[in-house]
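seq as requested:
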Amino acid sequence: MNRCPLAAAVVATLALASACASSPAPAPAPAAGPRVTGMVGGGPVASASGSPTQVALVGGFDACGGPGPNNLERVVRRFFNRLAGLLGLPATMPGAAAISIDDLTASLARPQTGSLLAIYAGHARERPGTDAPPTVGAQKSFTSLCLAPQEVPAQDVLAKIGMGPAVLVLGACQSAYIDVSGQSAVAVISASPRAIGADPPAFLDLVAEALGKEDLDVNCDGLVTDLELFTYVTNAVRRRDPQGLQRPIPKLRRQADIQLPILRRPLRPGCSDPADLKPILDRAGNLGADIRSQLAYARGEETLDFAAPRGDHLLLTFRGAGTPDLQAQVRAAVIALAPDGTDVVPEAIAPDEGRRLAKLNIAGEVYELRVTFVLPLPGLRAKPLAGDGIIVELLRPRELRLLAIRDLPDLPALKQSLTGLLPRRRFERFADNTDGTKTIAVRVIGRVPATLDVPGYQLEGARQAVPCAEEEGQCFVVRGRPVSGHQGP
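struct tokens:
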């Protein structure tokens, strides 16, 4: 299905080109490059602290060879005008006109400071990787924006943004076929890898609805981030169509280890003053330092390096009848086995304090490893039952999600199981091929390295970006041959 509206919301530093004239002027010389039919507009969104967010709105109305006239221009104009009203932009968009691809990409240029929110609304479709120009790279399929007189790969638009912070939201049919790993501090929110169905404008409406919400800053830090926008839209899509029939399937991919800011917002009623957290942050080690920098950035007092690598944090909590000596042994084992870049939150932080910080933090992810000691009650039975021992749970406190659970008989078993329980950013699945190679599906949370190695395998050919089955992460397919002597899947 080719007739699908597309919205791309980009958060980044943007220099937005716009031209207005109050009196007649000579017609400008035609812009270089092929022409497309659409509209461009936008402007800055003021902020009480820090640099303003620049907003770019771009609409394109070709149908990629599908049926001709449609009402997409009217739908997009309504969406743009609604968004303009919510964000305080100029109230109207110019009429559809011939614009060049240079005009389109110029609207995504980044300023030296501040953030960018860019909306592209129009048609898009999936095309096979064999049709891709060299700029797209190795992909099994790629999203093509339906502009006229020629289609434009969404990858080409993303490349014009350069180094972020930037968030690109593609709200169209088949808009999930785009690789962000070649950029820096850029995220993409796409509506769906498939056709959206009979009411595709709903996705655009939800983006506008979300950005108009005073409580979109869920963690009360003064920033609206890519994850907060994505979470709101994803949950709203599910509520509208709980059966999942032809609804959008939003995906979030981010080439950064930190949530990317879209807007600064004053703290809403009901939010506690982050300054009250100072005694907790002072005891929270690296996690406290990350949050202090985050809050200073939200106030416009500091800058943040959104391209820098950021580690995750692990909050270790205990329940049940474990003695201080048992707890100390578990903590020592967790610290020794924690993945590189994962910081164990200091013992001085109480469980409730750690969970509060987990919901506030935007750099990396905060996980909770909850260890519950289950011991037999003296005198009630001669030996433990099967359920006695240690229960270990891995949780993500930000969304109250249980990620893994183990029921273990004793402390040695816990130590042996820790490697498989501790949080990681990379996941792999293997499938056999007839020539002795394996097809390896790799999912990465956060930044993807320039070289994507798979231990124990000699990779053949380039990695190919594919949409993830999961909501978050960047996914790739690679082909590899086991190295001699490797024992693995």
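The CA atoms of residues 38 and 141 lie 25 Å apart.
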